[in-house]
Amino acid sequence: MKRRVFLKSMAGMGLYLAANRDFPLAAAGKTSNSTCVGPTTSTAMVQKDYSWMVGALNGFSATLIQEHLALLKRYIEELNTLESRKNSIDLGGANPVFSHWRTCLFEHLELRNAIRLHDYYFSGLTSRNMSAGKRFGRVVVHNFGSFDQWWVKFRASALASRAWCMFGFDTQTGKCSIFGTDNDRQCPMDFVPVLVVDMAEHAYCLDYPGDPYAYLDAWLKRVNWQEIDKRLANISVNGS
Ligand SMILES: [Fe+2]
User: Fold this and answer.
1) What residues form DSSP beta bridges with 218?
2) Could you give the strand order of the β-sheet that contains 164-170, starting from the edge strand earlier in sequence?
3) What spacing in Å lies between the alpha carbon of 203 and ligand 1's midpoint?
4) Which of 35, 78, 83, 146 is most buried, judged by most C-beta within 10 A?
5) Is the pTM of this model over 0.70?
6) What are the tens digits of pLDDT across the range 98-155?
7) CATH number given to 134-233
8) Where in the chain are all domains bearing CATH 3.55.40.20?
């Protein structure tokens, strides 16, 4: 299978629920005798401009970035479509097995998280070669002993994850932690992401087929450490 076709098939798998949303929402609009009550106006989400990344990130092909941004664009379009239709969904048949409202509820959660996590990921990249910032250095020494010890643990966590790996601040423990997820619904509670890497296959298979280890090395070289230090400065992190 050609790489481009493979990448698209991966993106298609990620959008399985969104693609299958069309039927239940369309049907819901015909049986709205117990529909949502709420505002009819909504603020559509707009994609941030990441086009500068195309062809500018060493270690990442222009095609991969273009395909990845196209996927994010579709997530946003699907979320906006869902937002515009949710007030016409019949609430009367809501149940945990299958219902239009259940589909809306969980797709909203999944799309919202996917968009936010992609923003953390893309806005944390740069074409410049940077060293880890002083604030990040202090935090990882305080929480993990050293940058290398943090990286060993973060990389292992990323390799063990099928969707996202994130380093950030746990507001319950007051410490920085690493979490991994297998999908867009598994976000930890009371956790503020600081550094996020996309471990879904669409994020790297085109350039690093079957080699997430090499992808992570390339990604680490493209981290915008100024942005990461800025994120840390905006939250109260022990050791920073
Ligand atoms: Fe992604």
Assistant:
1) none
2) 175-181, 164-170, 191-198
3) 5
4) 78
5) yes
6) 999 999 999 999 999 999 999 999 999 999 999 999 999 999 999 999 999 999 999 9
7) 3.55.40.20
8) 134-233
